[in-house]
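Q&A log
Question type: sequence-to-structure
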Amino acid sequence: MSIAELQVYSVEEADVTGGVCVVRCVGGVARAGQVYAAGESRITLRRIERHGRAVGSFEAGHIAKVHLAGAVVALLTRGQVLTSVPPDGHALEELEAWLATDPPLRDEPHPRTLRVLAGVRMRDERLPDGIRLRWGRIALAATHRCARAEGGPDLLRAPELASVQVYLIEQFGPARGGDPAALCRELLALMDLGPDQAAAQGRVWRDLPYHRIRHLRRIKSLIPWLVLVRPHLADADPSARAVDAWAAVRPELP
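Response status: OK
Response body:
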């Protein structure tokens, strides 16, 4: 894999043909000749300068002055991240093979970059359903890698994972998109309160310490995803009754 990311520090000069920027490589290896995405636009990295001389490449963690071709250079802003893209896009088979090795988190591409790339293709209705499903599985894998890389409570990361899983279920049905009941059980297991307990705390949330308010809000953020998959559950399923109970108390949560 070779996906590089550049974060813009400043735009030193720019015109309709391109410009010069100071950037930091935040992922992979930046090389002269690479093409970078800025939204729907493309920018070519023509020249790299470090310490007053031209170099062919520079790695993550280093800063350089780069000469870029493309009118959109003038619109770049401080902090914006540019992601390298091959002329024909990232190959699905290449990404699947790379993920199959369970590569270390320090290896490129960065999990969040991969999640964004896969999410865009997963939602591209011009692609055959089978291809979109494969991109969806990559988006799920990348979301799990994000959680490992960024840490934090499972409850905090759950909405990102649920958003991908729910999309696949809604678009392709439970048979191909995933198991709605398993998803509900997974999300419900993250809730350390029952609906009645959460509702009781919700009614007095202004009196609670901030960390409890934040916790209630994280629980609340999962309920819409549960509600979306509820139609795919049998009424006799215990998860269905739990989803109904949580949907009823959601208005009382902060």
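Response note: The beta strands are 5-15, 18-27, 29-31, 35-38, 41-50, 53-55, 57-59, 63-69, 81-84.
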